[in-house]
Design goal:
This protein has a domain at 8-165 and 252-301: Distorted Sandwich (Beta-galactosidase, Chain A, domain 5), CATH 2.70.98.10. The protein is 1% helix and 45% strand. It contains 1 helix and 29 strands.
């Protein structure tokens, strides 16, 4: 049986090491000095619960796999059969083309062709680079068609701090608003709400014990460096997930079990929320021949 993630590519710098997959161009591992800061999975396994996958040309769910483009109904493949939705874009299970592989960086490219439910061709690139205590991920999208289209980009990493249990981690988000979702469908409804005074207020840091989240946060405050910062900490150690301003959303997901390690926590940088193809919320508008580029990354503090 073919490896579901294809060839594995390693990049290193100093004590930092990351592994990227050929299928999906996903992030399978990130560690420093042998200490894991990303939930990983076997090289010959499918990514569990979307672990490390690249989500484009939309992240999260498109309701009923339907949306409208220039007055025409688009019918995507239903890729979440239990809920009847199309989830996490079109490239998670496709082979990407390797453009460059250096010791500490790697770049992949893929064409998103016109197909049922997607009417405009795109070209996407992703560039991973490691530094001694940091990983940077840069996304690029280019409209290769003859008409404008709105797109979204996200990723689905699950973070950890070595072997510290997830429930002992403190989560700090720069988010001031939350978008409610229907639990059964995991699709947004109603207006965004302020987090102040609610169970969703993580601005000053809260333990993850007791938190049950599959939740989209926005209203992200910019730090002095112009970026958003979301932090997982345990004692004097921390994983600082930073994003450029275009990543105006973060989905926090705390599944009960991931590969037998117990509870996990995904911090998913997103440019738009679930069902953005229908709502239009924060879609990146790409005119013919134009490109968009933005980055996010992980910095380890010890």
């Amino acid at each position: 049986m073919a490896n579901p993630t294809g060839e594995q590519f390693e990049i290193t710098r100093g004590a930092a090491r990351a592994v990227v997959t050929e299928i999906g161009a996903g992030l399978r591992a990130f560690e420093i000095g042998g200490v894991p800061y990303l939930e990983t999975f076997d090289a010959d396994a499918n990514p569990p619960k979307g672990a490390g996958q690249v989500l484009l040309p939309w992240p999260n769910r498109t309701k009923a796999a339907h949306w409208t483009y220039q007055g025409r109904k688009q019918e995507l493949e239903v890729t979440e059969p239990a809920r009847g939705n199309a989830i996490h874009g079109l490239v998670r299970h496709r082979e990407w083309t390797l453009l460059e592989h250096a010791e500490s960086s790697i770049t992949f490219e893929i064409d998103v062709e016109t197909q049922p439910g997607w009417p405009v061709p795109l070209r996407a690139r992703i560039h991973y680079a490691v530094a001694p205590r940091e990983l940077t991920v840069t996304h690029e999208m280019r409209n290769e068609g003859e008409s404008a289209i709105g797109v979204g980009v996200g990723m689905h990493p699950y973070f950890r701090l070595g072997d510290a249990p997830t429930d002992e981690l403190t989560l700090t988000l720069s988010a001031t608003r939350v978008r409610p979702a229907v639990p059964e469908a995991q699709l947004p409804y109603g207006d965004e709400q302020d987090v102040e005074g609610t169970e969703y207020d993580f601005r000053t840091g809260r333990l993850l014990a007791g938190a049950d989240l599959d939740t989209a946060f926005t209203g992200l405050a910019q730090a002095e460096d112009g970026r958003h910062h979301h932090v997982l900490s345990h004692g004097d150690k921390a994983v600082d997930v930073w994003t450029d301003p275009d990543f105006g959303w973060v989905q926090v997901f705390t599944p009960e079990d991931l590969l037998g390690r117990g509870r996990a926590v995904a911090l998913e940088p997103m440019t738009c929320p679930a069902d953005a193809l229908n709502s239009g919320t924060d879609l990146i508008e790409l005119e013919p021949g134009t490109s968009w580029t933005a980055s996010w990354g992980v910095r380890i503090r010890v």
